[in-house]
Amino acid sequence: MKEEQQYEITICSDSVGETAEAVVRATIRQFDAHQVRTKRIGHIKTEDEIRTIMEEAAKRGGFVAYTLVQPELREMMKEEAVRLGVRAVDIMGPMMQAFIDTWGDAPKRKPGLLHQLDEDYFRRVEAIEFAVKCDDGRDTSSLLKANLVLIGVSRTSKTPLSIFLAHKGIKVSNLPLVPEVKPPKELFLVPGNRIVGLTMDADKLYKIRTERLKAVGLPFGAKYAAIERIDEELRYAQALMKQVGCLVINVTDKAIEETAGIIMGYLN
Asked: Looking at residue 118, what DSSP letter applies?
């Protein structure tokens, strides 16, 4: 890609378009594509809308990713893609066709089923509220109510990981580990298989904490980012994780999604 040129991916859906956007963004992360932007268009109802969208995409020179459950809208998208020479990626269609071919079932063809206010939806909302309430050791009694307890020193991604897992419906409480602060008694009552320890290479943690100091305007030489202090905290955390008998994950250079995948596989 030429750095000076801007590119656009149009995301189309007859629902809100979150599914297609998630796939597109996951794909973008695999490339050095900072100059690529996305445009999401949801709740598409008519073939005329698709015709207009595709003509605009043709002018801009990008491509289109879509999730359309109505067969007539999918067919129009394909026809316009051919007519205008615009690449269009059908994200949901091949999966639905595989379902039909394998089991002979017919799709409901109703947009937005993924986002219905069903039991799973309310479970995710409850988990997110739980994660916010129990973040950073605020409510130690929550450790016994959590599906999962994350422990680790400062800046090992406990909070973003808690929220990410909460979106999957997992109630997560997280607890920072500090040598001078005695862990709450509740931690030792949680089964080891419901605790995950997060650790990180000292040099990486040093860089992250140094950047954090800059962001909050603290002096560069603060103890928080001293390599000796970081080594001390990591040794303390490692010993405590061994004591509670939990899974330990080194999150150095791991994306939140990757760490979450390891944890969900472990929980299952």
From this structure: -
CA–CA separation, 200 and 198 (whole Å): 7
Using DSSP, state whether 216 is helix, strand or coil.
helix
Q: Give the single-character DSSP code of 124.
A: H
Backbone angles phi, psi at 83, to 5 degrees: -60, -40
Length reported for the chain = 268
Query: What backbone torsions phi and psi does residue 144 show, to the nearest 5 degrees?
Result: -80, -15
Q: How far is 154 from 210, CA to CA, in rounded Å? A: 12
As given in the structure block, the two tokens for residue 268 are 């299952």
List of long-range contacts for 17-20, beta carbons under 8 Å, 24+ apart? 17/41, 17/42, 17/67, 18/114, 18/115, 19/67, 19/91, 19/92, 19/114, 20/65, 20/66, 20/67, 20/91, 20/92
Range 69-76 contact pairs with CB under 8 angstroms and sequence separation of 24 or more? 69/14, 69/15, 69/96, 69/107, 69/108, 69/109, 69/110, 69/111, 70/14, 70/109, 70/111, 71/109, 72/47, 73/14, 73/44, 73/47, 76/47, 76/50, 76/51
The answer to whether the predicted template modeling score (pTM) of the entire model surpasses 0.70 is no
* Cα dihedral 30→68→18→15 (10° resolution): 170
Per-residue pLDDT of the chain (268 residues; tens, 9 = 90+): 555 567 899 999 988 888 888 899 888 888 877 788 999 999 999 999 999 999 999 999 899 999 988 888 989 999 999 999 999 999 988 887 888 888 887 666 566 555 455 677 778 889 999 999 999 999 999 999 999 999 999 999 999 999 999 989 999 999 999 999 999 999 999 999 999 999 999 999 999 999 888 887 776 667 888 999 999 999 999 999 999 999 999 999 999 999 999 999 999 8
Between CA 33 and CA 44, with CA 39 as vertex, the angle to 5 degrees is 145
